[in-house]
Amino acid sequence: MISLVTILVMGLSTYLTRIAGFLLLRNRTLSPKMETLLNSIPGCVLISVIAPAFFTLQHADIVALAITLIAAWRFGLLPVVIIGISSTFLSRLLL
Amino acid sequence: MESKVTSNKINEFRRGQQDAIPVLLGFIPFALVLGAQATQKGLPPYLVALMTGTNFAGGSEFTAVELWTSPPHILLIVSMSLLVNIRHVLMGAVIARYLRYLPKRKAFFALFFMCDESWAMSLRDTLKNQQTTFSLPYYFGISSCLYLTWVSFTFLGALFGEEIGDLHKFGFDMAFTAVFLVLLRGMYRSAKEAIPWLISLVVAGIVYLMIPGAWYVAAGTIAGLLFAVLTNRETV
After folding, report:
1. ipTM, two decimals
2. Nearest Cβ partner of B185 from A13, A25, A73?
3. Ramachandran region of residue B225, left (φ > 0), alpha (ψ -120 to 50) or beta?
4. What is the number of CB-based contacts under 8 A between chain A and chain B?
């Protein structure tokens, strides 16, 4: 029973985080400076989420990450995902 | 006229589904692992599906499963989940201006499915086409695929947990990083504007190495944002 309650409360809290920012800003117009700041958020969020991948001590993973990083700068989403998975698989197998 | 609008919406929806395919490749193994881990912690499969169905937020779900006990410590789990998900507030703020002209009902419904990937991809799409409003069909094309995949594969992972074994050696976890790297590239404009990203990366990494748990995401994001705020002030 408490498991059910925990999950439901968790779900509600997650949804609240999703609508909070929207509720705060939807009727506000922001100054150009604020807009520039807002535009820097996406990159900071994304890179923070994948930060652990950059701080691994596994040689194989560092090599695979480097390959994936280079691929990401040149190719589209699907090729990069495939290159990422295969380079990681091979790296871990061989290194 | 109406059929043209409808067919355009269907095309947009399909386009979203198509663009979501590479992301699905990353979702599936993570979902299976999450389901399997949850089972090991004592969560029955139906509760796993409920968790992923009501949250649809991998980071917080992995955290919750890691912290899961019998009985679960509700305050701990919800607060840690909030910590991981707090970035949603910023994400919602970023897209507020692209949602504000939509009917409220649709916006609130759409926001339920906002995750890193659907948010970043729709944002990129909107900016690339120089639109002022989100293409909702495109967004739902992506979100519906991601949501259905996530919930069903976490459920499958919970059901067949023991048979899954070690997925680490197949390298699927890099798919997640790969998606984010491509999204980052799409957002890159100049080296100067990307310096906050570097700050975020370094701070997040250090916090990750030093403090267990999910603090590194919030720490990295705030550090990068603070840097942007402080350096912005200088140019006034």
Report:
1. 0.89
2. A73
3. alpha
4. 269
